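Case 475 in the screening queue. Each case pairs one protein sequence with one candidate compound; here the compound is adenosine-5'-diphosphate. For every case the pipeline is the same: read the inputs, emit a complex structure as tokens, and attach any notable structural observations.

Predict complex for case 475.
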Amino acid sequence: MNITAQSVWNNCLNFIKDNIQPQAYKTWFEPIIAVKLSDNALSIQVPSKFFYEWLEEHYVKILKVSLTKELGETAKLVYIIKMENTYGNKQPFTERIPSSNRSSVKAQDVDVPLKHKDRELRNPFVIPGIRNVKIDSQLNPNYNFDNFLEGDSNRLARSAGLAVSAKPGGTSFNPLLIFGGVGLGKTHLAHAIGVDIKDKYPEKTVLYISAEKFTQQYIDSVKKNNRNDFIHFYQLIDVLVIDDVQFLSGKSGTQDVFFHIFNHLHQNGKQVILTSDKAPVDMQDIEQRLLSRFKWGLSAELQTPDFETRVSILKNKLYRDGVEMPDDIIEYVAKHIKSNIRELEGAIISLIAQSSFNKKEINIELAKQVVEKFVKNTKREVSIDYIQKVVSDYFQMDVDTLQSKTRKRHIVQARQLAMFFAKKLTKASLASIGSQIGKRDHATVLHACKTVDNLSSTDKQFRKYVEDLTKKLSV
Ligand code: ADP
Ligand code: MG
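Case 475 output:
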């Protein structure tokens, strides 16, 4: 019988395929190429060292069994690591490593002295915390859809999230970009989507990572000279969740590598989920080509929750913690803490803690004290309404005039100053500022900010306006 590397490997594959998860087979075995068969040693080519290590760690047994079935007890396996030369100008290289199944590896099969090789292999590409038995998804099961309460402020983002988790990679929401201010539930929702996918599709490889950690890993990989492995690792993920992508601003190396990973995943129908504290139009120092990718899918905003939603979030939390609290206290807290759900929860927790430490009854008085502390500690953000009021007062006009469509120069300037300060002093997006100041679009606001910047460096009188208003608006 004419046995070739290919025929031996095909038989092995058939055996392996029947014994492992389809997704694992696809990920780890389909990319392998059988290269040659000599002296009962089968050489297979794998795409990276990381790949080789993964096989050795997780599939060495099944490899051995299948190979022994084909070639008998003296069978040997030799890995050839072929790095693709897709990045930088590093030469592609090929490296031969024998299977760790050393008893069946003869010394002459080894191209590099074993000792040296050993050392190198003990120092694998490790992404701290990620590379466990399987790729650990890093998801927090406590952040799920069940406890992500729905309200007007999050309905779009939440249902987009549900659509994505029902069909990861299979909707037009790819990438799904969730954006919104601090403490409004971006991280919670991002985890919820991942957790739900893991639940519905256990074979999918899901990975949650903060943009900050991603950046750190990338920098490390450059230092350790295994950037290709880094990229390869991320290209294996089915559902990639990257939290707080605004962190990538100004980091062009990381943006570049993310761009390539993103393209690869997207082309292969993999799902990408991103969160950011800004809308794409407001992101600064993010490369245009990356921004345009962010806009391919859906950008869904998490807005500040209305009073009803705040109350139900609090009630739900108390219920799950098994704590009872009178409605008027809950409503008092919900009424006074508006712009950040994390603080809302923080106030309730501190209220519970205060009452149990001091054996005090939870009453409105105590609630007042706690809320006051929270409101004081978090520097109050001025509202856009307040800014418009202050600016119109300063120029002795009313707010309607400031918002009107007129092109009279002094009114236009007042309006531009209001937009400028709204951008400077609030976290609102350009689009949201525009819609609140006379229903303008984000480009108008951007233009206003630039004009104010220019005028205040060229026009003395105008600079005085800016200075006076800065004083009036400082809190
Ligand atoms: P962000 O990432 O936007 O800063 P987080 O996701 O960390 O915000 O949310 C802050 C806190 O608010 C978390 O404890 C989260 O569970 C809670 N939270 C946010 N949105 C909701 C919601 N819709 N229902 C219940 N809890 C929420
Ligand atoms: Mg977050």
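Case 475 observations:
- The first strand starts at residue 33 and ends at 38.
- Residues 147-149, 154, 180, 182-188, 313, 341-342, 345 surround adenosine-5'-diphosphate (ligand 1) (CB under 6 Å).
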